[in-house]
Specification:
The protein has 3 domains: 3-73, 3-Layer(aba) Sandwich (Udp-n-acetylmuramoylalanyl-d-glutamate--2,6- Diaminopimelate Ligase, Chain: A, domain 1), CATH 3.40.1390; 88-292, UDP-N-acetylmuramoyl-L-alanine:D-glutamate ligase; 301-423, Alpha-Beta Complex (Protein-Tyrosine Phosphatase, Chain A). By secondary structure, it is of the alpha/beta class. The radius of gyration is 23 Å and the shape is globular. 45% of the residues are buried. The strands form 5 sheets. Strands 8-9-7-10-11-12-13 form a 7-stranded parallel β-sheet, sandwiched between helices. A 6-stranded mixed β-sheet has the order 17-18-22-19-20-21. Helix 15 (375-378) links the parallel strand 20 (369-373) and strand 21. The chain has 17 helices and 22 strands. Helix 11 packs antiparallel against helix 12 (283-292) and helix 13 (319-331) runs parallel beside helix 14. It is found in: Cytoplasm. Residues 96-275 form the Mur ligase central domain. Pfam families: Mur_ligase (PF01225), Mur_ligase_C (PF02875), Mur_ligase_M (PF08245). Residues 299-376 form the Mur ligase C-terminal domain.
Amino acid sequence: MTIKELHALFLEHPHICTDTRKITKNCLFFALKGPNFNGNKFAQEALDKGAAYAIIDEEEFKTSERLVLCDGVLETLQKLATYHRKYSSAKIISLTGSNGKTTTKELIHAVISKKYRTIATQGNLNNHIGVPLTLLSIKEDTEIAIVEMGANHQKEIEFLCSIAQPDFGYITNFGQAHLEGFGGVEGVIKGKSEMYDHLISQNNSIFFNADDGIQKEKLANYTKKMGFSSSDHQYYQIKFLGVDPYVSLEVEGTQINTQLVGKYNFTNCCAAILMGKYFNVPLTDIKTAIESYRPENNRSQLLSKNGFDIVLDAYNANPTSMRAALENFSLMKAKRKTLIIGDMFELGSTAAEEHQSIADLAENLHFDQIYLVGENFYGTKTSLSKFKSFDALKEHLTKHPLEKASLLIKGSRGMALERVLEVL
């Protein structure tokens, strides 16, 4: 079956499933493989549960006409996504960066959807499987699709751009994330910049932060760009007003009061505002969209529980985002501040140095109580309270409950520090 023929089948059954536990009636099941599973073995089960067809790549499992044999299921899924992207008239906005991708994507979606029929990456499905699934969620009436792209090594963004073929792009920042896979900060800059390289090669448009020296330098000689700035008047002006605890800003004389903590969210808002202006969304609608957005999924959430005012930022962490979170927390007004931070993953040979740097910063910011959690933080040279595991922290807090305070909780996803809430 050719990709064109498969696409015709997809138009008749426009829902993709890759997990037999989530089969919907008349979907197309793609029998993906992984290190510990082989989707081909579950293809017949998918049909039995209601799938219209199953796409497989091992001939021994082809036992009926509804089992479609291809050379490689993953590659076929990716080619189908690109074919559908070309078939659709929707404009594609691509998004990557070291920090803030998902929040920025959701803000852009909130703003753009005020005027256009818009879809966006669900959750953080931003890899070689998630990007195709996002593209295949584009409907006939979709006008704009916002596609988040994640990466932890070179050439990954280049590959995702070749699948999505974006019309527009934005990079949130270049930070100390996935240093192990990228080979250091310079590797991060090179890897994330693959989005710029793709857009420039196609003479497509780029949104950027003109206050970011790296981005400004990389785009110095490129003309199809639109930037925002809080200081450079040749770009779209957005003024930072403050954060206490939420970010507030001003654009064209209009004040916008967000529900986002942390100055680091200022540029995320700016990107959404700039894109809204480019696509002619009225400023009143932009303001409504930004002010109505509330973060979820452990991303800079402000919560209250049992007398604690909590900044829960436990979805992910790297040295750049950790440093920004600590510095922002130090500026927040509170009588008492407690810090609980967990290990940052994927730092490779720099792990010991980076964890020591964060431990030193935490100590120098003079919070009332500080708890470091995880094997990397446990290995730092510091007088701060440190625990090798979450269970060790939990045992301590059970015996020695925290005093009521403003509380920042931050760590990499694998640390799952949102579990602290159960201990309070």
